Amino acid sequence: MTVREFNKCVDDYSDNLYRFVLKNIKDEDKAKDIIQDTFEKFWNKKDDVQEGKEKSYLFTTAYHTLIDVTRKEKRQGNFSEVKEESYSVDSQYSDLQEVLEEAINKLPEDQKAVIMLRDYEGYAYDEIAEITKLSESQVKVYIFRARKFLKQYLGSIEQVL
Fold it and tell me: Theoretical Cys-Cys bridge with 107: which of 70, 85, 111, 113, CB 3.0 to 4.6 Å?
């Protein structure tokens, strides 16, 4: 891969990668760091990546970097950084997008990642399986469970509103 081809990959995929990571962690600075790490890893492996598989490699690498960062933060949680608002639930919602994001954030990490890849980024099941290193049937199960949870959660919110 040449520098020009690498730069084309950066131009083509950086926005989609950033949106995917940002939707999962809700922290712009961490999302930028993860994307930078992803492209650094891509640069170091640029000659090993098959032609035409760049997008899949980038999303896979970003996903795994995201998981690593999330796990590291869970181990190193700092109680002084916890916001008091996270202990209470405000039942007054005026924005459906806000309700949907709250519901998605309640999903387990694997379900959240596959639902984001499928419904927000438009990936096929086999592509999601390749990115997440899950079997295609496990991807379908996670998506089914996530959608079932979202339907139940949003249905219960609808009754409250």
Answer: 111
- Which token pair is 29? 């600075």
Residue 96, classed as helix, strand or coil, is helix
The DSSP code sequence of 102-131 is HHHHTS-HHHHHHHIIIIIS---HHHHHHH
Residue pLDDT, tens place only, 112-130: 889 888 888 888 899 889 8
Give per-residue pLDDT as tens, 43-100. 888 888 888 888 888 888 888 888 888 888 777 655 555 555 554 455 554 567 787 8
Domains of the chain plus CATH, in order, are 1-78 (1.10.1740), 92-161 (1.10.10.10)
Q: What are the structure tokens assigned to 54, written together?
A: 């760049």
